[in-house]
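thread from #wetlab-drylab

HS: before we spend reagent money on co-crystallization trials with magnesium ion, can we at least see a predicted complex? here's what I'd submit
DV: go for it
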Amino acid sequence: MISLSNLTKSFGNFDAVKSISLAVPEGAFLVLVGPSGCGKSTMLRMLAGLEKPSRGTISFGDKTVSDGERGWTIEPAKRDTGLVFQSYALWPHMTVAGNVEWPLTVARMAAFERKARVTEVLSLLGIDALADRYPNEISGGQQQRVAIARMIAPKPKVLLFDEPLSNLDAKLRVEMRTELLRVHRATGATSIYVTHDQVEAMTMASHVAVLKDGEVEQFGAPGDLVAQPRTAFVATFVGTPPANLIPASPHGSKMILAGEPMVATFSLEGPALAMFRPEDLTVYDKPGPRSIAMEFAEASPVAGRMMVTGTRDDLRLTAVVDEAPKFYPGDPVYFSLPEAPAALFSLKGERLA
Ligand SMILES: Nc1ncnc2c1ncn2[C@@H]1O[C@H](COP(=O)(O)OP(=O)(O)O)[C@@H](O)[C@H]1O
Ligand SMILES: [Mg+2]
């Protein structure tokens, strides 16, 4: 089990990571996801022992590996973690096999054991045939496999990944997700995976922590985050496509949603944000009951349905429908809302109902 307690990292008087506490069971695949600059890499570097926490602790099992208050941290090589970055950083003068063997040599493993382990991990990653090639003789995707093989060769208990697929093309990225999950399963090691891509997070994670400005907005299983977002940020960050948030305010017996007064079956004390799921909206080419006039932006087929997006000023709405009229960019499009939203948030983004 990995547990973080009040983990904080300050650079001068800027807190990049703010008092994060969470625990994941052994063998979990934890994904840290959030926009650029939210503190993901800083967290991962603290887990790897490359960065000392300013406050708080990190424990692997019952062993504390970093303690901010005491100012000590077990060095990277001694904490049984493996780390893979976005850039593969293979040794250019060593073959694929040589790269994978290197950490085993450093760990003083006997030569015959090293050979056996190299063969084993190259075959796990499906790159046995590349053993004698040099990094500049293989593709980016193959290089990333080598980096992963090199990381898992010494059998670390904790695998750390910092956006390892960001440099790969879209198709390879999807293939590598499966590959990484296979490696995770084969090794049984607890993995912590950093990404800014929520689709990657939702497809790979057993546990997800959504980070924003150095804090955990929500921690849970992928399905729970989509079903029960705790904040407006999470609601609009996760899900394919993510939920819509529409400004709402009470007006007599009606509700004003995105500026349109309409009859509603929910009540509010004051202005709020109403969450509507894309699959709960319908789209028309004429005004109708409970509809909001938007400008058509784009449409694309998804799994036999149509995803239609409209914009108006800062508001962007997405609906997923069975059928939609043919629109051209700039056409008026009317998004019709159900009577009640799936969730309500305060203007600050806290969940109300
Ligand atoms: N060594 C450093 N010195 C000062 N600020 C840093 C340092 N490392 C990271 N930061 C800042 O901390 C914040 C989080 O950075 P980082 O963890 O790299 O974010 P992410 O990986 O989520 O994009 C950013 O605002 C970044 O500029
Ligand atoms: Mg980063």
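DV: The chain has two domains: 2-237, 244-345.
HS: ok that's useful, forwarding to the group
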